[in-house]
UniProtKB/TrEMBL annotation:
Keyword Transferase in record: yes
Database matches in PROSITE patterns: PROTEIN_KINASE_DOM, PROTEIN_KINASE_ST
Species, as recorded: Vibrio vulnificus
Gene3D superfamilies in alphabetical order: Phosphorylase Kinase, domain 1, Transferase(Phosphotransferase) domain 1
Residue ranges, annotated region (Disordered): 1-88
Entry superkingdom: Bacteria
Compositional bias per record (Basic and acidic residues), positions renumbered to this chain: 1-19, 28-38, 45-65
Record-given protein name: Serine/threonine protein kinase
Biased composition (Low complexity): 71-83
Keyword set, alphabetical order: Kinase, Serine/threonine-protein kinase, Transferase
Lineage of origin: Bacteria, Pseudomonadati, Pseudomonadota, Gammaproteobacteria, Vibrionales
Residue ranges occupied by any Protein kinase domain in the UniProt entry: 100-385
GO MF, one example: protein serine/threonine kinase activity
UniProt-listed InterPro entries: Kinase-like_dom_sf, Prot_kinase_dom, Ser/Thr_kinase_AS, Ser_Thr_kinase
Pfam families assigned: Pkinase
Amino acid sequence: MSVDNEKKNTQEEKNDKTKFIARSQKIGPEKNVEKSKIEPVSVKEINKEDSINDKSHTKRPESKTAHPSTRTEVNTTVTRENNSPGYQTLEKGHLVKNRYVIDSLIGHGGLCDVYRAKDKVLESSGVASPFVALKVLQHEYIDQPETARMLIREAQHTQTLSHPNIIRVFDFGVDNKIYFIVMEYLDGETIEQLIQRSRPNGLAFPNAKVLLNQILDALIYAHSLDIVHADLKPANIMIDSAGTVKLLDFGVSKTERLKQDQYAAKRKVDDHQVLGYTPNYASLNIICGNKPCRQDDLFAFACIAYELLSCKHPYNRTPIDLAKKNAIPLKKPSGFPNALWHDIKTILTDTSGQYKLSAESLKQRLNQNNRSKYAIAALIVLGLFTSLGVAHHLNSQIVQLEETNRQLAHSLQTQQQIINSQPESAFELSASDTIHPVLRAGLLRHHKQTLLAKFEQQIDEILNQSNNEYPDYDQVESVLKHAAIYYPDSHKLELLNLDMRSSKRSTLLSIERHINSVLEKGQYDAQQDGKSIVDLNNDLNSIQKNYPLTPSSLALEVFEQNLIDAIEQRNSIALTELLAIGATFFSTHEASQQRLLHAKEVNSAVIAMEKWKQAEENGQQAVYPYDAAQVLYGHKFTSLHKKLENATTVNSLDQLVTDIDNLAKDFPPNFPNISELRFQTANKYLKFSDMLLRKRQSVSARNAMKKANELLQQVDSTDFRG
């Protein structure tokens, strides 16, 4: 829908921009939004999207009317299943706000699901049908404070529309991350279903007139507020069990719909939904992408009136632009009065929209042949006077009524004394079991502004604590939870809560970005503003315990390269620092876990080896750290064994012996791995000697034998027992 008065919306935007970020700033005043006091009528929301197949309709440029997927609901009562992975709905019996009991899922839209729910308050007060409709923000959007704020804004705007032929919004709020709007629950059918039941001839004019009058009443009211529906169709109009017509999807201004685009989910939709309107009932003005106007609603109304009286669309379900292009004739249905047909025909054929007709003039034309209502009124008045004749039978009850009246007066006096008590005593009085629930609610409501101001003052004191670098969000949340016990439906508290969550999230993301910046540079010991990366992580966890910090891919890449370099260099100082960083920021990363374990072994081995060398230099007796040496030099022993296995000549064995002797300088004489390598190399020399003898190369064979014996003597001198 479109709202012409943009100034009002602009001012509301300014009022809602108060943020919770600056600790010294006070959050702005709550906008007083009165809830509807009308009791919900039992109505069943049975609706579906316009199912008319419009495959022949060429796709046009997107209308300025908001895209249906960006609206909180394409239709308040769309009924369809969502089988997407991870999709969650509320189960039957789930209690929302300790008041609304979920009965069943009856609708689904772009951002919200619609449930039939039982209102426990209405049930306890004896209402015959205590059902309401709950529009609930879908689970995937609950962590987006902006989206929740958008839902609250929609409810506030919808509540400003109060008309018996427009669906009502009674309440809205949040309960344990369930953001909801409480709406009138409709028990009836849509105009679309009525048309299908009336085939093939349509409704008789007197019956249709009753419905058309109510539709026009709603349009007259909306147009008086400069609001255009812009998507009127049979599926958007319901008739409840009492015969009352209800227009759905009313009350969200064009400005509001456009604002929702940035939070809208991208869902698979049909061509009708993609354009933001239903082509079969859209005027040429809307199809061309122009700003919606009142004549667009009149065009849709004319189509609906035509279809009610004939069960046929005026252009055989062809959009108006194609109908004009293909010169589809417009035929007058047999049930149409001539006077009304003249106006309906003008609306359906004059695509310029320059005609002077309005919803008011259409209603006058629709009812110009009505019989006078004064005769009916006279009969009613006559009946009332006649009923007065039975008044004398009530005299016997006067005494009893006077006594009842006295008791009521005393009760009212007591209740007034409670209401006039000081605001500070309201919490204690409201907890008393002797006070009637209605009086308890009245007491809290009477002192609402004063008590909410006290809660807000507590929050300001927390935010302005000079000894804290960051606001104590947990303490603020505790105050808000305490306040919500007494005022669970307070819009002001909910907006404060949303701002607090938004501020907390912004602070956490800011610190996380700072940490990632340091990790990506690999400057783990650097300090900024007197804070190290560990200090920043402590800040993060002080704001939210066990915050799931996710290092960036670049931070992980830099860390692993630094770890590899430190292992190769056997830099104990660097390894110690990197192990601490890894345990803090990378311990949950699967690819880093094995590397961190190896780095820990290497660091322990380096420290053990350095202690042994220090003891040797100081002339102290110390046991050589064989296990540490295995860790530090294991890869070199593996490499030498590989060379031994691949050696095919005496010369290659000679080079291997040189490598073994060079490596042996780093170990004590009896190091097992060195002795083992020499022993196996000697065996291979002996094998080469035997092979050379068989080839009658006796000199080479003797040289190989000699080298084998030298190696065996080295092994024996170290007392190696292989």
